[in-house]
Amino acid sequence: MLVTKLYPGASLQVLLDQSTKANSPLKGHERTVQYLQRLGAENLGIIFEFSPWVLKICPEDGLKVFTEDLPEVETLPRDKVLQFLKEGFEELAIPYLEHIIYVWDENGPEFHNVLIQLYLSRVQGLMKQYLYSLPEGVSAVPAGQEKGELGQFRNKLLSFLDISTSYEPARLISDFPFDGLLEERALLLGRMGKHEQALFIYVHVLDDTRMAEEYCHRHYNSSVEGNKDVYLSLLRMYLSPPDVHCLGPIKMELTEPQANLQAALQVLEMHHSKLNTTKAINLLPANTQIREISVFLESVLEEKAQMKRCNQVLKSLLQAEFLRVQEERIFHQQVKCVITEEKTCRVCKKKIGNSAFARYPNGVVVHYFCCKDRSVCPTEQ
């Protein structure tokens, strides 16, 4: 009872003093965590003052001061909490950001940017150790397949770059130079709409046609101007690779990119429906044989023929519908409505005379201003 009667600061000091006494009913950090979780944003300074000792002795429980699913906790100013953790408990900044983004659906770009930068910092530090430990002549494994923490954090980084829609790639791209973490850089370039630069990495740096096609599959959208020609960009990358020095600063040795006609022909055959046929053919070398693109041409012609048949069927159906509507129009136009001097309105019982009138489908005629509900026909009397 003593603790609850004191001001927050005094109560927390009592909890701190009692936490290490063996025979005290207030021993441990659990009550401090529970107390801090109920203080709310108006006591943020007190939370920052008394949470560090819990964060030091039990980081996992201490982090619950800022991540427990309670209204008082969820409404704490997240930018200030993040700054507090980064300054004194940087290893907890990542789990805090993961919680507010994945659990509380935080969409602020600044939080997504910082999480990527923190992932990157961990990956870069672990990558140096990993590369140094590789025996001479042994190549690094594919991105995300590294063992231990490196693989864990790199997978998180790759996944977050792929699924998050809130980070700002233009602000982050400079943190991913061309001398490493190429898969991550390609994801950023793709988010920026720089498809040819991203495909250059997959095709001519990583030499991975599978990843290049997966990239095109993710980004292709026939209704979006910047994405509808992504397969055409892949075709161009195979047939007319750009000069290495045209793609920005590169801090690694690369051989001059070579054309790959076979890979280009495979793209033509497998993705002909997603390519502009004329533009694709214009990219092919002048000495390309007809037999080399026969499968592509046959597929295009078959697709065009099927499209023509579908359009013809659709045209016939639309023509039939047009004739039906025309017949219905003629039928309704043939119906006459004779207004005599004795014709009265079925609503107000007054003569129609020269006033504007309305006729219901059942033939009942009323003054136009008496027609309140067009869906309910007055009965003929």
From TrEMBL:
Similarity annotation: Belongs to the VAM6/VPS39 family.
Q: Where are the CHCR repeats?
A: 66-243
Q: Which organism is it from?
A: Characodon lateralis
One Pfam family name is Vps39_1
* Vacuolar sorting protein 39/Transforming growth factor beta receptor-associated zinc finger domain ranges (all copies): 335-373
Q: How does it sit in the membrane?
A: Peripheral membrane protein
Can you say what this protein is called? Vam6/Vps39-like protein
Q: Where is this protein localized, as stated in its record?
A: Endomembrane system
